[in-house]
Write a structure and sequence with these properties.
The chain is an alpha/beta fold. About 15% of the residues lie in helices and about 20% in strands. Strand 10 and strand 11 form a beta hairpin. The protein starts with a strand and ends in a 16-residue tail after the last strand.
């Protein structure tokens, strides 16, 4: 697919004057927001996925109904029929994106069932390569590898290694975070949302850890939540790694099971924010933005969910500021977004839901049009 030529700094809603012209056919990575026109994307793969090996910190994020699977079946394959249906949905998503003019790349096949150990602990196996958004974050021309706190995910980056090397060889900046030890000192039994801030979460400040899916990109602003997998040490590492060009701001969410911000907030266009009405806490940085509370999920109550709540329904993927990929059976959400002026691209995805994510989780946008601009705070220009 032919990529277009864009300015390094946008001249639309953001501040900043046009900068150096960027030919997208000559860059490996270029992505500053969650909504600029999408040109290339990674779509994950659940093939060969296994249940995660249990660790106590999972109790604060996994549905209690799913604990048994990790405690008794860690390292064993996911149910074959459901996994096959989910992988077919991922393949269909790739086809739909290509039909929309987006280039799609996929991770390598790896053996997730292979046990491994460090000097400090061992795991019956890995997990999957289904959610590239958890492990990787593209900011401008850089890709950050996250130091995830679930021990079973220690080698998850292996599935994306070929892509990482390719991006680096083509000029991208490759920024792996410090590899964590994940010893017992990292974990605590949290005190809940009424506890002091540092004691709410399952991870301590022993070493920097974070999941990339706890961050959202708004041009020069990066928004992050503190969670059971992301600590202040990890947020500080991202802040220093990105440098003064970007502002990394921690926001409060009303989610005692917090793990990944993209089922709480979904910026769909400059000045337009889809929010989870049960978790969203208003923040002054979004003053002047239109806020749409997402309708309740349409998922049947008896649908198997191994890793997350049905609110993954609002985990949509923006193809551009007017187009959003949405689960086909989430009709209330489709109706709300259509009424808000968006074109919805419906794709069946409920089987993928079961494994902990939806369209935003299973993708990593590597190339979008546009560049660094200011969309949040008093320094921004009009968002519409």
């Amino acid at each position: 697919m032919e990529r277009t030529r864009v300015w390094a700094d946008t001249t639309g809603p953001g501040t900043g004057t046009p900068g150096e012209e960027v030919d997208l056919s000559a860059v490996a990575l270029n992505s500053y927001t969650e909504w600029d026109p999408l040109r290339e994307v990674v779509v994950g793969s659940l093939s060969g996925g296994v249940f995660p090996s249990w660790q106590e910190s999972m109790a604060h994020t996994l549905p209690e109904s799913a604990w048994r699977h990790s405690k008794e079946e860690g390292g064993l394959p996911f149910p074959a029929a459901h996994l096959k249906a989910a992988e077919e949905e991922l393949d269909t998503l790739a086809e739909v994106l290509e039909a929309e003019g987006v280039s799609v790349v996929r991770p390598d096949a790896v053996n997730h069932a292979r046990p491994f150990r460090t000097p400090h602990w061992e795991s019956e196996g890995g997990l999957y390569a289904g959610m590239p958004r958890d492990h990787l974050m593209v900011v401008g021309d850089a890709v950050i590898e996250a130091p995830m706190s679930w021990r079973c995910r220690y080698h998850e980056g292996d599935a994306f290694r070929t892509l990482l090397k390719s991006w680096f060889r083509r000029g991208a900046r490759w920024m792996p975070a410090p590899r964590p030890q994940l010893t017992d000192e990292l974990y605590r039994t949290p005190g809940g949302m009424t506890a002091p801030e540092g004691e709410r979460w399952a991870v301590t400040e022993f070493e920097p850890v974070f999941d990339a899916a706890d961050f959202l990109r708004f041009g020069q602003d990066i928004v992050v939540q503190r969670s059971h997998v992301t600590n202040e040490f990890g947020i500080d590492w991202v802040r220093r790694a990105l440098g003064p060009e970007f502002t990394v701001s921690v926001i409060e969410t009303d989610d005692p099971h917090a793990m990944h911000i993209d089922a709480t907030l979904a910026p769909l266009a400059p000045g337009r924010l889809l929010v989870n009405p049960e978790r969203y806490v208003p923040h002054e940085m979004f003053d002047g933005w239109e806020i749409l509370p997402a309708p309740a999920p349409a998922l049947p109550s008896d649908w198997p969910m191994y890793f997350c709540s049905p609110w993954v329904s609002m985990n949509v993927l923006s193809l551009d500021p007017e187009t959003v990929v949405v689960e086909r059976q989430e009709q209330p959400l489709i109706d709300a977004l259509t009424a808000w002026g968006f074109r919805c691209v419906p794709v069946d995805f409920r089987h993928v839901y079961s494994f902990g994510g939806s369209f935003h989780c299973v993708t990593l946008d590597t190339v979008r049009e546009g560049g660094s601009a200011k969309y949040l705070g008093p320094e921004r220009s009009s968002t519409r």
